[in-house]
Amino acid sequence: MQLDNHEVEELAMSLYIRALKLLPPDIKRGFDRLVATETDATGRAVLDTMVQNIQVAEKTRNLLCQDTGIPIYNVTIGRNVDVDGVAMKDAIRRGCERATREHPLRSSVVHPLTRHNEQTSCGVRIPIINIDFDGREETVEIEMIPKGSGSENGSFLQMLIPADGPKAVKRFVIDKVIELGGRVCPPTIVGVGIGGTSDLCMHLAKIAATRPLETKCSDPEGAKIENELSEAVNQLGIGPQGLGGRSTSFRVHVEVAATHITMNPVAVNIQCHSARRASAVITPGGISFH
């Protein structure tokens, strides 16, 4: 299959808009579960308001949140796909720019030193484009994630002492959830990366934070910590928007990587309740949105 970069450009644009306006079904189901289990009156009222806001935004085709985020595109390329990688990345950038200019969206991207805003949601090394490969035949999957700053500011890395073991990992995560409180617009998805190098660990935390809710860590020990932390953070009493209740988090997600014998990195990256993402798969038969 020859990848059509005009098609990629159009898809990069439409996925950005789709992600900003349509909340994924798994997040909506997550809200349903929290509403059913929340016992605090204020917490339940806040959840009800959030659900109503989502419904109004989708019905009126408005943005779920005014923050259009840092645009992230995750591209997974299957077997027997002819790709010009440079042209593909250029096409994604053009699609991202067009989404912001043509709809129009607020550009949230600025130069880190001058704070100049190009009004395109693009800049130096932005959009972020991650490329991976899998075994599917003649398939390219593109996922778009607009990562808002409110949740992205809830990011932390610590190089732990290996001898302190899993207890130190769990203590670090819980301490950071407490420190953040309502500043990350809970209920959240708490992404946790464990292992690797410092940069890989942070990347794992981002993968975990943006994973669908009904998935679990493929590593048995990671899955065990996921379950323990998911229960623990919802006993902290922070609640939706930090106003009290059990619904602090939809779920804690964990991703792991092997690491060095003398270190144990752990990272936290938060995804707010507006956990937006959109994806599509390109095959010889056409495009299907997920």
TrEMBL record:
Which Gene Ontology molecular function entries are recorded, alphabetically? 4 iron, 4 sulfur cluster binding; L(+)-tartrate dehydratase activity; metal ion binding
Q: Does the keyword section mention Iron-sulfur? A: yes
UniProt-listed Enzyme Commission number(s): 4.2.1.32
EC class, as a word, reads lyase
Ranges for domain Fe-S hydro-lyase tartrate dehydratase alpha-type catalytic come to 11-280
Superkingdom = Bacteria
Task: Give the InterPro entries listed for this entry.
Answer: Class-I_Fumarase/Tartrate_DH (IPR051208), Fe-S_hydro-lyase_TtdA-typ_cat (IPR004646)
Q: Does the keyword rRNA processing apply?
A: no
| Keywords (A to Z) from UniProt | 4Fe-4S, Iron, Iron-sulfur, Lyase, Metal-binding
PANTHER family the UniProt entry points to? FUMARATE HYDRATASE-RELATED, L(+)-TARTRATE DEHYDRATASE SUBUNIT ALPHA-RELATED
Recorded family membership: Belongs to the class-I fumarase family.
Name of the molecule in the record: L(+)-tartrate dehydratase subunit alpha
State the species of origin: Variibacter gotjawalensis
